[in-house]
Design goal:
heterodimer, A: mainly alpha, two-stranded antiparallel sheet, 3 strands, 1% strand
Chain lengths: 588, 272
């Protein structure tokens, strides 16, 4: 239990200290120490497999209720201040529902905090990946044009967010979970608006009201649970089967779809890309949006073989395809990463909702490897943004020449998301096998299978389209520039790369399948590359063929834009699916 | 025995390629090259002065060839069909990265087309593999080859496979990857001498790769498999002589609309 408290309190304490101490060097030391301690705490967890429980005291519960009401009033205030009708309405509905839920909530029941295997797994991602991102953000904020106090506040905000996430993934009470869900919404709102220009504020507001919908459905789920079963707790609720349980579970799945920015809610995550890069890396790809697959994994025992599980799963798989497709029309690098996050979150939810042991394991594998790879990609995008002032892939032509190391990291990110022998690829491969083995019992999963296959192909197209811009390298006759990545950027990037490769190797090893090791064989080639390249000296060099033109010219990038009608059809279709989740839950 | 076949795979593919050129010449009533022309080409290429743009670009072609050879070896050894498809994907990605790694517009255009071809045929191949899995209960080729009657249980999947064979062997109507007039050789343009030879030999292996899929449809009966492969070989060349090239985007649309629907209908029929 002490370890859990460490995970919850340590980032909070560090957050206060960062806000107080004005020296950058102190921040580095402090955050490195916190990162080391959190990693050790997380790893020490894996020595035992006990389920830890904690009852919150009466006073603490009262404090949380008070904090929650203050939070909702703050949302209401923001809505009135910024004159947003949606925010006001949703905040008011939340206040009413929350007040009512607390007044009828049964006292007692099982523990409010339960740390099980799933929570342990989420701790691993939140603290290790999150820690690396906070470390990176110190260097990132040095170049940010804002006041020193605001910069410190930013880093301390990220640390505090780690605490919140650590509680979120072990909350067992629906109302506690609601409070934490809204806290992450608040974090999203504040950090997106950090740069405080017109577009940031608009996008932050959109993120706020969309996520508030998630809050409303969680409250409705809690009310259903209280009314039908007299309980507030996830574990007690999921012990029941049939009837209203599924309605409650359906409402919670809808909250997951909102938090995972599934279409039609993808707008908030895309808008969130205007925030500083550490925010995009931490909240909008590596940790916060992972609440979506986490929640579905938690509900998976109830979703299982039901029609509701099928509908959630199909929705996820279709989001995987549609978001990958929509990403093909974008040219801002972070937006491309954002859409591919939406897509992969859809895939994770689809696998989690299938509810077999194997598919749930695969969803977790995807969560882990996606967090590592996407964090790497976002951090590398941040380096391009800060060192070279590049955000759009159209401007990144031949970047491998100017920034070979950063492009190397980006390429590793892309390859680790799509190709063997990396974890995410393995996850998709096993997902195909796993879904195929279930096809005979559940023909509905054929849609999920198609989704996995087509979505993966589209993601390959997306990532390598982007790398086509980055990679165009002039002939060897031109000297490549030497790139220096500052240590504040380089160390987090290197750490993530080592984790990606190490975790992939570990994942292959635990499969006990000799054939899989052979996937790693092409990697040997990559490691042998430098020595082979030296052996290539004896061949003569030439410039590429340009039809006799003097000035070199480049091939244009390819974009695929859906027509307006098609786009509307996609949004309406997913909107209907979203509502259908509630209906299927209510009727079954 | 299998190992000897694996070692000889590029030669075998070369013969297949040479045979195809003879066949096409006969279909067009012209003399055409001798059967061993691919090997004469090889000696000629080895004799040429090799010029490269930069080292990784040249090496990726070599890697592409060896990973493809490895893929074909995996087929001969009867391994997991899904792993084989993804090893092939990996080999193609090496080629595509090679195409992107030089600052040459034609190379980029060619790589774009290779990429689109890849996303067109890969889903179909996986669906065919799933079809085999549903009937035989395993993705291992050794297991699959013990069963029979695949052709009668999955005729539409066979038709879908038939549609993507021309993409893989670069034949009309889906020969966008080899449109010489438009993209001047595409990915291959910046290669010369020995490194071009590796790309040239990769094509032989591609032939073995795709026709193996056709052969597997014969199941336990090698006789049926061989007839199928020979029949598809004839048909593809006949269609090649009789049709014009479609555009890349049209190709992707046709494959996604027709081949995929055929595959899905067949899978549904097998499930219900």
């Amino acid at each position: 239990m002490e370890t859990v408290l460490t995970l919850i309190l340590l980032p909070a304490v560090a957050s206060v200290s960062v806000a107080v101490f004005p020296f950058v060097r102190v921040q580095y030391i402090l955050i490195t120490a916190v990162f080391a301690m959190l990693s050790m705490a997380v790893l020490s967890f894996y020595t035992s497999t006990d389920v830890l429980t904690l009852h919150l005291s009466y006073t603490l519960n009262e404090c949380i209720i008070a904090a929650d009401i203050v939070l909702l009033l703050y949302f209401l205030y923001q809505g009135i201040k910024l004159n947003s009708f949606k925010v006001i309405l949703l905040a008011a509905v939340q206040l009413l529902l929350y007040g009512y839920a607390e007044s009828v909530a049964p006292a007692g029941g099982s523990a409010e905090i339960i740390v099980d295997d799933l929570s342990r797994f989420m701790f691993l991602i939140i603290n290790i990946v999150g820690g690396i991102i906070v470390l990176y953000s110190v260097r990132y904020m040095e170049d940010e044009p804002s006041s020193p106090f605001k910069k410190r506040l930013f880093i301390s905000g990220l640390l505090l967010f780690l605490s919140v996430m650590n509680v979120t993934v072990c909350a067992n009470s629906l109302l506690l979970f609601f409070f934490l869900f809204e806290m992450t919404t608040l974090a999203s709102y504040q950090l997106i608006a950090f740069r405080n220009d017109e577009i940031s504020r608009t996008n932050a507001l959109r993120a706020l009201w969309m996520n508030q919908i998630g809050g409303v459905v969680i409250l409705l789920a809690a009310l259903v649970a209280i009314n039908s079963f007299g309980t507030l707790m996830f574990d007690t609720l999921l012990e029941h089967s049939g009837g209203m349980v599924l309605f409650s579970v359906a409402l919670l799945s809808m909250a997951a779809l909102v938090k995972g920015a599934s279409i039609p809610f993808d707008g908030w995550l895309l808008g969130a890309m205007v925030a500083p890069t550490p925010v995009s890396a931490m909240l909008h790809s590596a940790t916060m949006v992972k609440i979506a697959p986490y929640l579905i994994l938690k509900l998976a025992p109830a979703l299982g073989a039901t029609l509701l599980g099928g509908v959630v799963s199909v929705t996820g798989a279709l989001v995987f395809v549609a978001a990958s497709y929509l990403a093909l029309s974008r040219s801002v690098f972070k937006e491309i990463l954002g859409y591919s996050t939406v897509a992969l979150l859809g895939l994770m939810m689809a696998l989690a909702a299938i509810g077999t042991k194997e598919s749930m394991m695969l969803a977790m594998v995807l969560i882990l490897f996606h967090a590592l790879s996407k964090a790497l990609l976002f951090l590398a995008a941040g380096v391009l943004e800060k060192q070279y002032h590049l955000k759009n892939i159209e401007e990144m032509s031949a970047m491998v020449h100017r920034a070979p190391k950063t492009v190397g990291f980006i390429l590793l990110g892309f390859v680790s998301l799509t190709l063997p022998p990396f974890g995410l690829f393995m996850g998709k491969l096993f997902a195909i096998t796993s879904v195929a083995s279930l096809l005979r019992e559940r023909p509905l999963l054929l849609i999920v299978l198609l989704g996995i296959i087509i979505g993966s192909a589209l993601l390959v197209l997306l990532y390598f389209k982007v790398s086509s811009a980055l990679l165009a390298h002039p002939s060897d006759t031109v000297q490549t520039e030497d790139e220096r990545i500052p240590y504040g950027f380089g160390i987090p990037l290197a750490l993530l790369s080592v984790l990606i490769i190490g975790a992939a190797a570990g994942f292959i090893m635990i499969q006990r399948d000799v054939m899989l090791v052979l996937f790693a064989f092409p990697l040997l080639f990559v490691f042998a590359l430098p020595s082979i390249v030296r052996g290539m000296e004896r061949y003569d060099r030439t410039g590429p063929y340009h039809c006799g033109e003097k000035e070199p010219f480049d091939a244009a990038l390819v974009y695929y834009e859906p027509s307006v009608t098609l786009k509307q059809a996609i949004y309406w279709g997913f909107g209907i699916l979203f509502v259908a989740v509630a209906f299927v839950g209510a009727l079954s | 025995m299998t190992w000897i076949w694996i070692l000889l795979a590029p030669l075998l593919g070369g013969l297949l390629y040479g045979g195809e050129r003879v066949l096409r010449a006969r279909m067009q009533r012209r003399q055409g090259p001798p059967l061993l022309q691919p090997f004469y080409d090889m000696f000629k290429l080895l004799d040429k002065r090799t010029l490269i743009v930069h080292a990784p670009h040249a090496l990726l072609a070599v890697a592409h060839f060896f990973v493809l050879w490895f893929t074909v070896a995996a087929i001969f050894l009867g391994w997991n069909l899904l792993y084989i498809i993804f090893l092939h994907l990996f080999a193609q990605m090496l080629l595509i990265l090679a195409g992107y790694s030089v600052r040459s517009p034609y190379s980029h255009l060619g790589a774009n087309r290779e990429l689109l071809m890849l996303i067109a045929y890969e889903p179909v191949l996986i669906l065919v593999a799933v079809g085999f899995y549903l009937l035989s209960g395993s993705f291992e080729i050794t297991e699959i080859m013990r069963g029979g009657n695949y052709l009668f249980q999955m005729p539409l999947l066979f038709a879908a496979l038939l549609m993507i064979v021309p993409i893989k062997v670069k034949k009309s109507p889906f020969d966008v990857g080899e449109a010489h007039q438009e993209i001047v050789g595409g990915v291959e343009i910046e290669y010369s001498g020995v490194f071009y030879e590796f790309l040239y030999m990769s094509r032989f292996l591609e032939y073995l790769f795709i026709y193996s899929f056709v052969f597997i449809f014969g199941g336990v009966s090698c006789w049926l498999g061989s007839v199928l492969a020979a029949g598809v070989f004839l048909l593809v060349n006949l269609v090649d002589n009789a049709t014009a090239r479609v555009r890349t985007a049209q190709m992707v649309k046709i494959i996604y609309a027709m081949a995929m629907s055929l595959a899905v209908v067949n899978l549904l029929w097998m499930l219900v």
